[in-house]
Amino acid sequence: VSGVELSPDEVLALLPQQEPFRFVDAILEVSEDHIVAEYTFPPDSDFYRGHFPGDPVTPGVILLECVAQVGVVALGIYLVGLEGGLEAVHRRLALFADAEVEFSGMVRPGEHVTVSARKTFWRRGKLRSEAEMRLDDGTLVCSATISGMGVPR
After folding, report:
1. Which of 68, 70, 128, 135 is 20 to 30 A (C-alpha) from 112?
2. Cα dihedral 93, 11, 7, 91 in deg (nearest 10)
3. Is 139 exposed, middle or buried (0-12, 13-18, 19+ CB in 10 A)?
4. Active site (annotated) includes residue 51
5. What is the dihedral angle through the alpha carbons of 83, 84, 85, 88, rounded to the nearest 10 degrees?
6. Band of pLDDT at residue 38, cut at 50, 70 and 90
């Protein structure tokens, strides 16, 4: 089985998360070592109704999910494709394993973020990345060490 280098659009198309739980609009760059993606948080997202009424803020768990979808799931799809081809990608499901995250800013409804992640460990389907999320003005929203693994479907 030979590997295949997937384009950013191909990786995005293979991302298993879908609306309303997909937090990646576009993948700007992807390579064996890193990924850069973007997302705009829709102002009408249901979670804003309760977090917090009159002063909505994107929940930290949603920010972490966005980072994980980029730095573990999307980057993992790319790496599995490189090693085993498209068939290998279709046979695996990426699962979140753990994270150490530090929040340093907030994301309001309608704001656009860029998530970048750098691979620090990749072996036997387990991926660890150092990731960060920034607002358009460069403000760091959060940084994280995140891990996940691919399991057979």
Report:
1. 128
2. 20
3. middle
4. yes
5. -130
6. very high
Sign of CA pseudo-dihedral 11, 13, 16, 17: positive
pLDDT digits (tens, 9 = 90+) for 88-124: 999 998 888 999 999 999 999 999 999 999 999 999 9
- pTM, rounded to two decimals: 0.96
The encoded tokens of residue 28 equal 């700007």
Residue type, 56: P
Q: Which residue is listed with tokens 């860029």?
A: 114
The structure tokens listed for 95 are 């699962």
Distances (CA, A) of 66 to 23, 52, 58, 76, 117: 5, 19, 11, 14, 12
Q: Which of 34, 51, 90, 112 does the annotation list as catalytic?
A: 51
